[in-house]
Amino acid sequence: FTSTRDQMDIDEIFREIGELGRQQCIYGACFCLMNGYAAFHMLQYSFVSFAVDFTCVSDQQSLTNECLQTKRDSCQALQFSASHSSSIVSEWSLVCDQNYKSKGTMSAFMAGVMLGAFVLGKLADSIGRKNSMTITVVGIVFFNTFSAITTSFQMYVVAKFCVGFFCAGNILAMFVLGNELVGPSKRGIFGVTLQAAFAVGIVVLSMIAYQVQHWRHLTLLISIMGLPFILYHWIIPESPRWLLSQNRLHEAVKILEDIAKGNGTVLSEKVKLELDSPKKKDVSTPAARTEGLSDLFSQHQLGLMTGIQIYSWFVNSAAYYGLTLAAGSAGGGLYTATALSGAVEIPAYVLTNFLLDYLGRRKTLCLFMIGGGLSCLTIQLLAGTFPAILASSALLGKLCLAASFAVVYIHSGEIFPTTIRNSAMGLVSVAARVGGIMAPFIVLLGDYHPNLQFTVFGILSLSSGLINLRLPETKGKKLPDSVKEMVMAMALESKKVKKRRDVEERVLLSDGSDSESNLA
Q1: How far from 158 is each of 46, 105, 165, CA to CA, in Å?
Q2: Alpha-carbon torsion 185, 191, 197, 199, what sign?
Q3: pLDDT-derived band at 5, boundaries 50, 70, 90
Q4: CA-based max dimension of the chain
Q5: Is a pLDDT exceeding 60 seen at residue 68?
Q6: How far apart are CA 432 and CA 438, in angstroms?
Q7: d(Cα 431, Cα 312) in Å, to the nearest integer?
C-alpha cells in the first residue's frame, strides 16, 4: 500500500475540487433514493406477515382467532377474512402453535443479512464498491420477485434469506462508496442525510402498504420499484480512494476530473502529475492485498475497539428493529404506528447533524444510546401508573436509537481503514444482524410480561452507550488508509488524552500547593 508520504492525500484533493459540490450532491441524491428503497426490504416483514382474522371450525364449536388447545391441527378448517387484506399468515395458515413461523421469516431475512454483510463486505474490497452495489441490486430484485410468486412456504423463507443476503451487501457498498466520494468535513452530514432517507422510506412504504394490503401484490410492486437502480452502474462512479489503494491511478484521476468538472472546479495539473506519475504506477501495493480482518485483533487495543463496535452494532440493530416491530403494541394501528416510527426519525437526524458538529461522533453516539435506553426503561417503570406515556416514550426511544444508528455508521466508517473498510463494516454489520434476528423474539417477551421487551432494549442501549466512551473521536480526522495508520491514529489519540490528564493533574497539584501556602 502506498504510504501517505508517497501519495497525495485524497482528502486534500477533495478540498481542492469540492468536498460536497454539485456533482457529489447528484450522487448523494441517488444514494438517498437507494437507501430509501432499502427500507422497503428491511421493514417489509411488518406489512406481509400481519395477523388476519380467522375462524377455527371443528366438530364441537367454531372459535374466532384462536384454536382448540392452541393447536392449529385441532381445526378441521380455517377460514380467513382475507377479502380486503392478506398476508403470509393467511396464505400458509401460520396461526396458533404455528405462529412462530411468521416470525421466523424475519429471522431468516436477518440471517441472510448477517451472512451477506460478512461475505459481500469482503467482495466489495476485492471487486470494488460500485460492482458490488450493482450485483446486489440485481440479486435483491430477482429473489424478492421469486418470494412474491412462490407457492411454497419453505421456498419463501429461502427467498427472503437471499434478499437479506444481497440487501446487506448493497447497503454496505452504498454507504462506504458514498462516504468515499465526499470530503472529510462533509462525511457527517452526508451520512446523516443518507440515514434520513431510510426514515423517509419507512413512511413511504407505510403509505404504499396501506393502499396495497395483499402481500403478493405489495411484494411484486416493491420488486418492480427496484429495477431503475440497476442503471446506477452507469451513473455512479467507483471510489477514487479504493482505486488508489488498488494502484489503479489513471481511473482514479479520471473520476476526480469528472467530479471536479461537475462541481465547476478543475483538478490541478500538479495533482494529475502527482497521481499519474510513472513512479506511482510502479509502486506495488502488497499491504492492500494482505491486510485482513484478523489484523483488527492483532493488538489488545485494536481488539477492544473492534469488540466495542461489534456490541454497539448488535444493540443498535436489536433495539431499532425491535422498537419498529413493537410500534403497534405501543399504541396506534400497524400502518399509522409504523409511519410515525419512521417520521420521528427525521427530526432525530436534524438534531444529529447539529450535535455531530458540536460534540463529535463519540459523545453524540453515547448521548443518544443512553437517552434511548432511559426512554425504554421509563415505559416499564411508568406504564402502569401513566399509561398515556407508553406511545410517547416508545417514539422517543425510537428517535434516539435511530440517531445512534446513523452515528454508529459514520463513526465506524471513519475508524476502519480503506484497505479493509468494507470488510470491517461487514463484520460489525454481522453483529447488527444477530440483533435483528433476535429482535422479533425479544418483542415476543411482551406476550409473557407487559412491556418486558422495552426493558430489555433499555438495558442493552444503556450499557452500550456507556462503553462507547472508550472509542476514539474521529471528527475532522483523516480517514486511515491502512491498519498501520489506524494504529498510529489510536496512539496519537492516547497521547493527547494522557497529555490532557497530566495537565489536569498538574493544575490540581498547583491549586493544592497554593491553598497550603495561603493557609501557612
Answers
A1: 18, 9, 11
A2: negative
A3: very low
A4: 99
A5: yes
A6: 10
A7: 9
Sheet holding 54-57, edge to edge: 62-64, 54-57, 77-80
Rounded to whole angstroms, what are the CA distances from 408 to 157, 321, 380?
A: 30, 15, 26
The one-character DSSP state at 142 is H
Compute the distance between CA of residue 230 and CA of residue 201 in angstroms, rounded to an integer: 18
Instruction: Report the C-alpha gap between 207 and 380 in whole angstroms.
Output: 31
- Average pLDDT value over all residues in the chain: 85
Closest CA to 464 of 351, 365, 393, 331: 365
Contact 335, 210 (CB under 8 A): yes
Q: Which amino acid is at 30?
A: C
List, for residues 13-32, the tens digit of each pLDDT value.
Answer: 998 999 999 999 999 999 99
Give the 3-state DSSP-derived string for 304-330, with helices as H, strands as E and coil as C. Answer: HHHHHHHHHHHHHHHHHHHHHHCCHHH
Residue 231 pLDDT class (50, 70, 90 cuts):
very high
Given a contact cutoff of 8 angstroms between Cβ atoms, the answer to whether 315 and 179 are in contact is no
Could you give the CA distance from residue 343 to residue 349 in angstroms, rounded to a whole number? 11
Distance of CA 515 to the CA centre of its chain: 53
Angle at 40 between CA 375 and CA 101, to 5 degrees: 80
Cα–Cα distance between 179 and 296 in angstroms, integer?
21
Sign of the Cα pseudo-torsion (357, 359, 360, 364, in order): negative
φ, ψ for residue 471 (rounded to 5)? -80, 155
DSSP state string for 377-397:
HHHHHHTTT-TTHHHHHHHHH
DSSP conformational letter for 211: H
Contacts of 159 (CB under 8 A, 6+ apart): 143, 144, 146, 147, 150
pLDDT attached to residue 498? 65
Please tell me the predicted confidence (pLDDT) of residue 461.
94
62, β-bridge pairs: 57
Q: Where are the alpha helices (DSSP H) in 416-470?
A: 421-443, 452-467
Which pTM does this prediction carry? 0.78
475 CB-contact burial (10 Å; exposed 0-12 / middle 13-18 / buried 19+) = buried
Q: How far apart are CA 367 and CA 465, in angstroms?
A: 7
Mention every residue, 6+ apart, whose C-beta is less than 8 A from residue 306: 296, 297, 424, 427, 428
CA distance 328 to 147: 25
pLDDT tens per residue, range 76-99: 888 888 778 899 999 998 888 888
Q: Which of 172, 171, 193 is nearest to 182 (CA)?
A: 193
